């Protein structure tokens, strides 16, 4: 299944998702590496086997092997970080914020691709996983690096579309309609 096949597999009631997938990919102002890395990390974060299988193939065709691996590493590490920091943030006791995390995230320090790309990918995964603390942190780093709000928003637009497609296709698979 290609990207077009993925779009055509969406039911008619979700035609807006089909159109939005086309617009976030075809009309992207991100670099190809930023775009396809964002597509890959959000497909992973969506937890949809259908979406991941198809979008990973597309991403792999557009990314260098190093960028493909860096995106997968970012998705894995950010999923762990999102659960940890979201939980720490949601707990009423602020003392948890003073404790050492004790979690390794070395790949984020030396991912093999540009820091801005990893920050954009991290923000996209954090959007899907709903970690406000991580969203704020990565947005601050990106803004400090000179990334404009439009580019930052584009990453979470991609995340929202990919997540919605995953939910919709998984629901259709279960409902069998």
Automatic annotation (TrEMBL):
Its EC number is 1.11.1.28. It catalyses: N(6)-[(R)-dihydrolipoyl]-L-lysyl-[lipoyl-carrier protein] + a hydroperoxide = N(6)-[(R)-lipoyl]-L-lysyl-[lipoyl-carrier protein] + an alcohol + H2O. GO terms for biological process: cell redox homeostasis; response to oxidative stress. Gene3D superfamilies: AhpD-like (1.20.1290.10). It is an enzyme of class 1 (oxidoreductase). Disulfide bonds join 131-134. GO terms for molecular function: disulfide oxidoreductase activity; hydroperoxide reductase activity; peroxiredoxin activity. The keyword Disulfide bond applies. Antioxidant protein with alkyl hydroperoxidase activity. Required for the reduction of the AhpC active site cysteine residues and for the regeneration of the AhpC enzyme activity. Belongs to the AhpD family. Homotrimer. This is Alkyl hydroperoxide reductase AhpD. The gene is ahpD.
